[in-house]
Fold this sequence. Notes:
The chain is of the alpha/beta class. Among the domains are: about 1-135 and about 435-520, P-loop containing nucleotide triphosphate hydrolases (Rossmann fold); about 200-335, no CATH class. It is built from 20 helices and 15 strands. It has helices spanning about 35-45, 75-80, 115-120, 130-135, 140-150, 155-175, 180-200, 205-220, 220-235, 245-255, 260-290, 300-315, 320-340, 340-385, 425-430, 430-445, 465-480, 490-495, 520-535, 540-560; strands at about 1-10, 15-20, 25-30, 60-70, 90-100, 105, 110, 125-130, 395-405, 405-415, 425, 455-460, 485-490, 500-510, 510-520. The strands form three sheets. A six-stranded antiparallel beta sheet has the order 2-1-4-5-6-7. Strand 12, helix 17 and strand 13 form a beta-alpha-beta unit. Helix 5 (about 140-150) packs across helix 14, helix 6 (about 155-175) packs antiparallel against helix 14 and helix 9 (about 220-235) runs antiparallel to helix 11 (about 260-290). It is elongated and about 140 Å long.
Amino acid sequence: MLSNLYIENIAVIEKTTIDFRKGLNVLTGETGAGKSIIIDAINAILGSRTSKDLIRSGCETAFVSAEFVEPSEQAVTVLTEYGFDLEDDTVLIQRELNVSGKGRCRINGRPTTVSVLKAVGVYLMNIHGQHESYELMSPERHIHYIDKLGTLTEDLAAYQQTYRHYQSLKQQLDQAAYDEAERERRLDLLQYQVDELEAAALTVGEDEELSEQRTLLENRERIASALNEAKEWLNGSEESDGAVQLTESAVTSLSDISSVYSEADRLLERLQSVVYELEDCCSELTDLTESTEGEENSLEAIEDRLDLIHRLGRKYGPSIEEMLTFLDKARQERDYLEKYEENRTALTEACQQAYRQAMQSAKALSDKRRTTARQFAAAVKEEMTFLDMPHVTLVVQQENCPLNQHGCDAVELLISTNPGEAPKPVAKIASGGELSRMMLAIKNVLADKDDIDTLIFDEVDTGISGSAAEKVGRKLKEVSHSRQVLCVTHQAQIAALADVHFKIAKTVTDGKTYTAVTPLDHDGRRQELARIIGGVEITKATLEYAEELLRQRDESQQGEQP
């Protein structure tokens, strides 16, 4: 449940902290005092889109934080999936708004995104207000009420898996539906691309090897000169001996004394090894010199090959690996188009089979919805009858429609509020007060299906008064026995039933508007209820009536205790 809400610089609220409790929490106040701002702040915590206009005039930033204790199992699961650990079974959500549009979000101190707030928020709180009125008047949303009551989530997921498979095959079939001329044009292009790449006979790494060869050929004269010079230093010339001859002379000199001077013998052996090594180097130099003496047109051939690779690269990919991948795909598509009729027949059969499977799953889901729809209509009618709408008739119209992500059903709620009138779409019949009560009735029917601990009813009493308001209050009180309920109301009969009552008041100081949220004690509640009943002027009679409402509430609670 929501245990604490802190708001800073949101519209007319400079700073306020609200400590909510279990049971029924009621917020009242004069029109324009800032009740809707509390809901706006909570919506921000739940990841709703916000406007910089929400930031208090003259401020650069605004801040909202909400602390939730003992979140539901489903909420914990979602938080864990996003990598958030719970400390002391508590969730702290914070959101900072900035006039620049760059806000920040945190969950338990860790940065996150607005989309994550939205994903988590739906399992923490449910706001029932004007938005839900629009949802109730949107027929495409009605199917979700039936699925929720019937706990058809798994059935819907199973259907959607078969539907996605069918959609995938249908998309492939649609893409394959070439006309003959287009298919021939595509085949010609593919064949040209395959021929061009196959004729090139590309091999991975050859461009790098050719580049190295080109570098050698471009420096051929310089390399040959250096090799010949090195050979001359080793072999010598007509004018002078080289390193080989000079080392051999040293060997001859030492040989003359090796028999009489043992130290020279060891050195002689080493020099002889040097002679062998130098002769081997001479041999390698000769081989290298010969290898550089290629044909005059070798460089031109390499340049032509590299130019071909470059031209192909501009069309088929910057690397040889990518060009070969392109070639493989082009061959596959060419082969597919060449076997077009055969492939289309097989794909058509697979698509038809997938459609039959999806339709079978959709019809099974539809049958369960039809049973659930009757239960839903009866349960909502019973709730609405209690809420002073005894003549209401509610029908769940379920008609077949083409397969879509929800199945094969078009579901719409039809309602009649007067005897003898045929049920018609909700948007055409229900008044504001009737719509509010219908929303509360649906919420009560679905309450046990929602794994949500906190429900917020924003002015659910719109358009009603008297006994209807009293019954709405009793129904809200009933819901609050198993869940925390927050309710913004203008009705004294509802406010009197609260377990905790907050007054929202606006003041003007030094030309600036400030809103404060204050929990009321018994006397404070009596004064606020009298204001709601009588308006600006509080009389003795309104105070006595307010006291009577509170007394009745206390007696009712005592009667509920075992």
